[in-house]
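Subject: mismatched residue count in predicted assembly?

I count 258 residues in my input, but I want to confirm that the predicted structure covers every chain. Input:
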Amino acid sequence: MILVNTETIPGMQILEVKGLVQGNTIRAKHFGRDIAAGFKNLVGGELKGYTELLTEARREAIERMIAQAQQLEANAIVNVRFTTSAVTQGAAELYAYGTAVVAQ
Amino acid sequence: MPFLTEAIVIVFLLGLGFLVGGFRERAHFKSLDRREAEYDDIGIANLKTVNDPQSVEYAGLVVADCVIATDYFKGFASAFRNILGGEMRSYQTLMERARREAVLRLLERARQMGANELWNLRLETSNIMSGVQQRSPAVAVEVTASATAVKRRT
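Triage response: the counts match. Full output below for your records.
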């Protein structure tokens, strides 16, 4: 599966557009990570636990999007976009979407 | 007396934020400058179409996240700034650090893939912790960077 966030795949031709595919996941923060983040809030700096959590969740959303594309028998997803939103306090939704295509 | 202890705690936290937070921020900026120089050879553009598509060997998506929090002192200082109005410098450096770090991680991933160009770079920001929720003035932001990494045929 080829993923790009450009409208075309450089060096390849899009033969058929299969339609929109999407994947989302909502993750809550871990309690232990919250304590560490609370401490980091005092001295500033990167909240590594949260970065990892988001990266993990984003991968999950991408995988769900890919699974949809495979069902449509596409071999690539173009124009992939991501959004993040805070659903409730302490939980984040990660959403990935793109257009599934057959490319050669 | 409980008021006095609370005041001492706040002064201690402000001092800790000012000294440790300031030191960490300067160290981070130094490390950003150093690492950015290492990835000088990778070109970045936010154009949607890739130049000269015939010479592309491989194209793939790269994504990177970064979550960064301010220190207690800066959060406190910007609470005052919020009353007076004007530029909030402490949050400006926070955003700059988060963006540069996220783009650097993209560059790292592009290098791992053997790519030498990044196209259609996108930066997206959301705040995951506002001062009101946490009962402390600290703020954390999340930056997500995504781009299409391109490897050219040589």
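Chain B has a mean pLDDT of 86. Marking this ticket as 'not a bug'.
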